[in-house]
């Protein structure tokens, strides 16, 4: 594996559309659930161990080379909120665009051809990791980190939080991120033999509820 | 008209999207409209649509700070049918969406082309930002920077990438000059000094046909685009 | 919370406690019990040839409502306790119409061991069958650990209405640990695969991404043979008094309402309102 490729893929500046998404943070702020650094940390920890773990499992499985279309279906059944399915596919399509230029390859082309409107973002992330020569565990790390990095950046913009405090939240979550990535990669290893049901499917009711509320809001800063 | 050439300004001659469609026809010309808040970007786009919509197939992508506001204005003003106007969210960072990470805007542009069929012109309006915000060449083929007289007659002198390098600089709201004490001659002189031979237009959209200089420039760019002449 | 908890305990005390039902635990180390219920259509109506009570589950016929056969699961003893292995197997055969309820809240208790308890609910509906599973809430109490699974198998022509409500802790009490995996398959294809985990040691389970301090959460799931037209997702409630979203799953023939609320009473109001919207959207109930 190339450690630099992983840094590149996980970098918030990788031009795949993530900057316009708050990962549910804007909705959490709007509903009064998050207003300080402690709230940010609780939000990120909760998202990491639910939606983050599920995304990491899907990404890791895609990075093993397992059929991405089957995994895309598994992502659909793990995403009950239509707004979040729409966002996941839109982000998947944007990541696909960046990935095909950055690490061109037949597997990305194949997925793009079969999901022209976008596959779920974690699936594209996994196939991209594979194209970049990264391991399933790397893909899981990227997905897990992304599940908290987006909300933290958004919280800085939404709440004018101290950026050093927000970054220290991410540093405190490093151990959790590692554990989530390891669990996701371990499940992904079993997919070939046992099927996609072994992948994590952890969900968080509030992310689904507020995700749908956010999509219906006429005025918002972030797309999700 | 343009003195810069590929050796001195190579970035001005790169496209990330092929100007031709797979069938060999030209895709739509994409024009970016940037500039500070309140300078009249939306009004300029609206006036262009009204003037050109009968002879060209046009679509608009807006990048609002708060999603949908500019798009809602354009829809309310009925400058185009609603399906020709798309809003892109920018996550409180409008310049990122048009320069550093253009993927959401490219998605919007391509979706419009896919839904509406061949288009002549796609106008991409950036969210109001500062004087440094410019469009990536991967997103816009050519770009217009809109400033206004009422924000201070020293703005052209201050310069910045938008003012010095945009393919067209629009200095809007000239009708307000007497009320805000702006010296148009100074602004004109500063503009020339900042832009060399790059074109600019002083406009007052409240005047009849006040958009004319911009319309003419767009028509010219479109003709050059179809002729395959690089910018 | 108090009013809601009172409502729950009222539900408990109203549980029929027939004298002939066992009340003491026969297997203090952990109980293994599987109750089974099968409905078939005899050409005229839905009948219940198999009602197999076991362990804490006492199955009782209720008077049918219209052409829908009804069964109530009575809690015959405290369950689940730590170490218990409980299962409930419900099959609605082809063309049957069946509703299954519970008489009282199911209360997960610690028991004499901190071992996890398991509770597996298997719901199977055949061709043109309609199965409603509408139990009372599950309450996770301090010190308990329960792994619950719902495995729902449907055919392309089955109807399902499923409600599940969970209350995390009794009044002024932290909950135990409650994990629930819900998988719904139609014609062998997954429709919904969902896992929720609440209560320590689950990280940040009551934080702003998961339950936001609410103690009651629940879902209402409708699966129909045809796509269910819902013009737009239905948004109910507010962050303080509880909120809920009703929206279609990726398989458009399924609608899911997801709710969180401060009390079980508020949760029920939200899910009942969602159900009214479901009834408006489809004639298949």
Automatic annotation (TrEMBL), chain A:
<comment type="function">
    <text>Required for maturation of urease via the functional incorporation of the urease nickel metallocenter.</text>
</comment>
<keyword id="KW-0996">Nickel insertion</keyword>
<dbReference type="Pfam" id="PF01730">
    <property type="entry name" value="UreF"/>
</dbReference>
<keyword id="KW-0963">Cytoplasm</keyword>
<dbReference type="InterPro" id="IPR002639">
    <property type="entry name" value="UreF"/>
</dbReference>
<dbReference type="InterPro" id="IPR038277">
    <property type="entry name" value="UreF_sf"/>
</dbReference>
<comment type="similarity">
    <text>Belongs to the UreF family.</text>
</comment>
<keyword id="KW-0143">Chaperone</keyword>
<comment type="subunit">
    <text>UreD, UreF and UreG form a complex that acts as a GTP-hydrolysis-dependent molecular chaperone, activating the urease apoprotein by helping to assemble the nickel containing metallocenter of UreC. The UreE protein probably delivers the nickel.</text>
</comment>
<protein>
    <recommendedName>
        <fullName>Urease accessory protein UreF</fullName>
    </recommendedName>
</protein>
